[in-house]
Amino acid sequence: MQKHNCKQTHSRYRFLLALLLVSILALSGCGTNQTIQESSQQENGYTFTDAIGQEITVHNPQRVVSLMGSFSEIWILAGGADTLVGTSYDTVDNRDLGLPEDIAIVGTYQNPNIEEILALNPDLVLLSSETTRTDSHVALKDALNGADIPAAYFSVTHFEDYLNMLKICTDITGNQDAYQTNGIAVEERIAQIIADSKTETSPSVLLMITYSGGIRAQSSDTMTCKMLSELGCKNILDDYPSMLQDFSVEKIIETDPDYIFVIPMGNDDALAQKNLKENVESNPAWNSLTAVKNDRYILLPKDKFLYKPNAVWDESYAYLAALLNEQAV
């Protein structure tokens, strides 16, 4: 009986050992397959479709050039600060991004220098699809593609556009925590601000941009007007779209909006104020407007409403909500 039990024990031991070896080999095989898949993904790169319909593939870019200040910031927010080697003047003029002093400046947003871009030997260039001049970003596409440089175009007007670009950039960098922190968390705060600010009334609003050449009224699909709409306001231009082409103080007086917001464009706020005084406020009936009489004629800060606020987009929503709520009391 004892000999029989000993043989049985050894048999069971050999069986368990064999089972363990099979398990180790199986796990090793899974790990190998996973490594092969990851290597294949790295080799194939990351592919996405940009704003002009191009299918772009990038392979862990290490030399990135951005031709717009807000795009430079988005790339940095996505975890790409160490790979940004070139940018446009507006990046350093309008945003404090802590960029190194020796970063290459490759022209202005409206007029980037293709020779200086190519000289940096980039493996990814971030461009805007919204410029329309002959020397615009889209005009650089053939030169960049001809040099086998991925030229990715984006269009960012509203928060949803920012979120989409941030997702692509964090997918490229592999920094998903950055997408959660600088994207999803911001989205959640915006949703809460909108929910808390909804009112039964829909105040009428007018948004004007003042610049060296004059004044323009803004349509509902622009950045700030969309925020105002989500906060429950109604843009008077929805009923008077002709004001987009033919700005009319008389029409403003006729419609008498509850709020009039102004965003100064450019670096000269004094010139913006001068344009307002000469082209708008000089009208004798201006001071009779409801918005003017009730201190609802408001100059908005450029950093929140002219430049894309990116990771602090919720602060722009909160700023408008506070103005609307305060004035409604």
Description:
The chain has 329 residues and is of the alpha/beta class. Helices cover 49% and strands 15% of the residues. Strands 5-4-3-6-7 form a 5-stranded parallel β-sheet.
Shape estimate:
globular
Gyration radius (Cα, Å) is 28 Å
Q: What percent of residues adopt helix (DSSP H or I)?
A: 40-55%
With helices defined by DSSP (H or I, 4 residues minimum), what is the helix count? 13
How do you describe this structure in short?
It is built from 13 helices and 12 strands. The protein is α/β, with parallel strands linked by helices. The relative contact order is 0.09.
Draw up the topology in text:
Elements: H1 2-44, E1 46-49, E2 55-58, E3 64-66, H2 69-80, E4 84-87, H3 89-94, E5 104-105, H4 114-119, E6 124-128, H5 141-146, E7 151-154, H6 159-173, H7 176-197, E8 204-211, E9 214-217, H8 223-230, E10 234-235, H9 249-255, E11 259-264, H10 269-281, H11 290-293, E12 297-299, H12 302-305, H13 313-328
Parallel strand pairs: 3-4, 3-6, 4-5, 6-7, 8-10, 8-11, 11-12
Antiparallel strand pairs: 1-2, 8-9
Which features would summarize this protein structure in a list?
single chain, 329 residues, alpha/beta, five-stranded mixed beta sheet, 13 helices, 15% strand
